[in-house]
Fold this protein.
Amino acid sequence: MKKWMIISLLLMAIVAISSISYAWFTYVQRKSLVKLTSHEIEVSLTLGNDILGSSLVIEGISYIDFDNEVMNQTSSQGFNEVGQNYIINFHVSESSPLVKVLFNLEHNHPELLILLIDEGIKESENEVYVTDYHAYLKQIGSAALTKEEFLLSIDAHNEQVVNQLKTVILKPGNIYQIQMVLWADYDLLGTEDNYLTKTYTLNITCLMVNGKGDFDES
Amino acid sequence: MKKVNQKTLLMSVVYFLTAFTLMFATTYAWFIMTNTNNTSLISNISDVEAEYEFYRFEDSYHNGNQINTLPEQLCDAILTDQCYELIPNPATMFNYNQAVAPGDRFSFVLKIVSIGTGGYLNLDLGKVQSIDASDTRIQDAFTYSITKVSYIVNGVEGTDQKEVLPTQIYSTHFNGNYETIYPLIHHLPMNPTVENQVIILIYFEIYYDPTVTFLDPYGVSYPDYNHLSHQAIQIEDIYMMISPSDQ
C-alpha cells in the first residue's frame, strides 16, 4: 500500500511539473475575431403605403395653364393644391448590405409636367415635406426666358434629383424619399385627347447595386 | 510503533491528495491557457510580459479606416461612427450585425502594452471557415493585411514600422481547411527602445475582395457574387505568441 502510494505520488508530481513547465514556456493567447455574414440586396419601392410596381397609372390629374399659372404668376393662387403629389419611398431592408439605387421615370405624354423633389433620408415619422411647389418651380426656372427653357430647366432639375439618388449609399433600415408632383399642361394636350377621360401611365425603372458597386448604364 | 505507522500513513494520504489536486489544477490550467497544439516550445520566456486590448473600427459604410490613429479615434458617448470601439471580451466572437457585400473593408487594432524589456510578437489567424457554404466558400473572397504598426513612446504614437526588419507582415486570401494557420505578423519587436513600457498598436483589416473568380462544379465562372449570399465567414481565433527571440 505504502509503496503504491509513493509511486503514484512520484508519477503525479512528474506529470504536474512537466505540464506546468510546458504551459509556462508556451505563452500563447487565443482570442476570437469576427463573424461576417453576406446577404442579398433588399430594397422595397413604395408609393405612400402601397408597393410600387413597374408602372404607375394616374387618373384625375389637374390641367393647368403653364404660362399664366407658373411663368406669369408670382404666387401659388391654387396651383399648389391642384398638384397631384406622391411620396416615393426607397426602403432598404435591415438585412440588406449597403446599397445604391438608380431610379428612372419614363412616359410619352408631352403635356405631363413632373416635378421631382429630393426629400432625402427620412429621419422621423413627422417629416416636413416641400409643399410650396409654385415657389419651388419659380426658383428652378428663374433664369428661363421662354416656356421651352423653363420646361428644360425642370427636366434638368429632375435629372439632377435622380443622379443625386444614385450617388447616395443607403444603409440598412434607411428610407430615402423623393416627392413627385404631377400636373398636365392644357396647351400641350393633343387635339384628339379628351382631358376629362385621359389616363397617364408612367414606366418606372429601379436598379440596385451594392454600396461599393457602380451602375452599368451602357 | 503502531502510532508512528498510523502517523506516516496519514501523512502519505495528505501528500497523495495534495499531489492529486496539484496535477488536476495544472492539467486544467494547461488546457485553459493554450487549447492548441500549434505552438513551438520556447526555451526562455523571462523578461517578457504583456497586456493587450482589442478594438474594432465602427464604420457604417464599411470602407475601413484610412487614418489609423487609435488614440485620436476612440469612440465615446457622442462619437459612435468612424471610431474605434473597445471589444471588452475578445474571447467571445464579435458577430457583425450588418450584412456584408463585395468591396467591404473592416479594420481592427490590437493594442499591446509591453511591460517587460524585450521579446518578439507573432500574430496568426486560425480556424477560418465559411458557414452555410455549398459549392463555393465566401472565405476564398476575403483577404487580410496589416495596414500599420506603430509604437507609443512617452504618449506619442510614432510612424509606421510595419516594413522595418525583422518584422514580417503577411497578406493573402483565406483558403484551405479549417485547421490552416494564417500568419499575420511575425518577429515584431515588443520593445525596440530601452523604455520600461511601450505600447504597440497593430492595425489590420479584412477585405471582401470583389475581383475573385469562382467556378461552379462544371468549371464555369459565376457571373456575380450572389452565390455567396447568406454565407458567413467566421474567424474564430487570433493567436498571440510572445517569445524572447525573433526566431
Notes: Chain A is about 30% helix and 30% strand. Helices of chain A lie at 2-25, 66-71, 79-82, 133-140, 147-167. The CA atoms of residues 43 and 92 of chain A lie 4 Å apart.
